[in-house]
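## retry 2 of 3
previous attempt timed out at serialization; input unchanged, resubmitting
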Amino acid sequence: MLVGNVGEWSEIYVVLRLLGDGYINLADSDLNSKDEVYLSVVEVHRNSPTGQLIFVIDEADRESIRLAGNDDVICTRSEIIGYAGQLFEALKNGGSAIKLPQLENLLTRMRTYQLAAPSTGKTDLSVVVRDGRSGGLSQMSFSIKSQLGSAATLLNASGATNFCYPVSGDEKEIQLLESWGQEPQKIITYARENAIEIGIGQPVNPIFENNLKMVDSGMPAIVAVMLYGHFAGEGTLISDVVQYLEAVDPLFVGDKEASTF
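## retry succeeded, writing output
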């Protein structure tokens, strides 16, 4: 039986809703749905351990759902939307070990034997849609970020998101800090008490650094200072750490403009 947390089950929920609804509403800049403007779903593509699964909505009746390359109907849109509703109610209750035995038969027919699809890129699934005005087909890829249960993370910390900070002071003291490894709070406290200067850090991984620069050329320094501020005890919320960022002013925007920036 499949067991997973809210985030993992959310991938399944998105697949079910796309197939069950059969369309994607467009939205404005505030994510308010435009009910009168939509794209018809033709196919939903999802990776699996045995290869890519392609679910196809029958163009003739817009009700039957098949796997690409197979004429057998595995389920209907009406059936799927009912299960999607049950899944949504379960996800609202949250939990780290959610089981839904009533979905097992449907997911088996859909050859879905694990929740979080393996991905070699930054997308979780792709959808082939038809524009109702032009009739043209296009394929769009999506990364799924679930807001159910708790806010989604846009950046997952890993070895690729580490920052390196320059240190200056007594050589023996610095060697002591190095012996502590990755204990930032302990290192920062000791450095402050023993006149050891820690400079503004930078990303260790050049790809991560370039990704930050895609947002803004000064973003690596901004994140480095905020990260340091967090471990230095300046706050746990971004709104608190931003006040520390303003005081440090790593981009030298000046006292009058720092708060605006």
